[in-house]
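User: Working on a comparison across species. This one is Polysaccharide deacetylase family protein from Micromonospora profundi. Can you predict its structure so I can line it up against the others?
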Amino acid sequence: MSTVPVQTLVRSKRLRALLSVVATAVAACGVVIAATATPSSAATCNGYVGLTFDDGPTGSTSALLNVLRANGVRATMFNVGQNVQNNRSAAQAQVAAGMWIGNHSWNHAHMTSMSQSQMQSDLSQTNSAIQSATGVQPNLFRPPYGETNSTLQSVASSLGMRQVIWDVDSQDWNGASVSQIVANASRLQAGQVILMHDGIQNTRDAIGQIMANLTSRNLCPGMISPSTGRAVAPDGTTPPPGTTPPPGTTPPPSTTPPPAGGTCTAAATTTNVWGDRYNTSVTVSGAGTWTVVVALTAPQKVSSVWNGSASWDSSGNVMTVRSNGSGATFGFTTMFNGNSSARPQIRSCTAG
Ligand SMILES: [Zn+2]
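Assistant: Here's the predicted structure for Polysaccharide deacetylase family protein from Micromonospora profundi:
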């Protein structure tokens, strides 16, 4: 028997509680909205971030949509198929409120332990439920718990969906307070995606402050591009308006691709930590195609890599990741194997 990661267990219990309780408990609550926030259309958008809400629709989806509308926010809803089937009108309300709809599996299982055909039928069934309820064909997929592998990614891809994890975890599923959720969201940078959830009161209560922080940094909520997995303008255009340099400034160096073999910059962030493993997100700047060398500390071991092609040296501790057309950010999951403190180090970033 393998051990169950503690946080995963807590989270799955929480989800089950949400699935069964929220519909009845929250439906009875009245919601008062103070429509004092500035709509995002009035803001100067120098970049976009992807706000995502998982595990809905729930009995409190309409409360969430009210808060989002009051703040002029469009977001991406990663819906659970079974919940769509049970809350068809809530799924329709998401689309009517201008939200984008993604696939978050049929019933939030741990999908990496499924066979390829089980994955296929789980995701297909979810897409059918979403399409039947809303007319929308999802082109984004988020694996439950952020747990993925190459088989799951290729199944999603074969169904026309790009896998999207997240750059920032709001920790709302983990009991984070409103101020903690706001603080986590304040780490969002242009192009990045944050994980939040439908059905959590603190999350709804945090949205006004999250928007105030984003607005102060000239960041606006956008859609997640199905081709890059990054946040772009709501109409799908990229780069966003407002990035034209003011007169007298020189164009940013990124407009001239460096020659192959030149250097680039790779910045690593720990995006999520569980009892037995953690996720790292690495964003490359200064090169469209790149090779990043990452050193790990034994006995830690990488268990999966996304948005890049990885190979290892003979020690198994040095990983080389090459761009594979999935954009400038790749990620990987590392198993602690007894060492929960070490974090990967970027050795080099090379263009081409
Ligand atoms: Zn989820």
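For your comparison, note: The pocket of zinc ion is lined by residues 54-55, 104, 108, 144 (CB under 6 Å).

User: Helpful, thanks.
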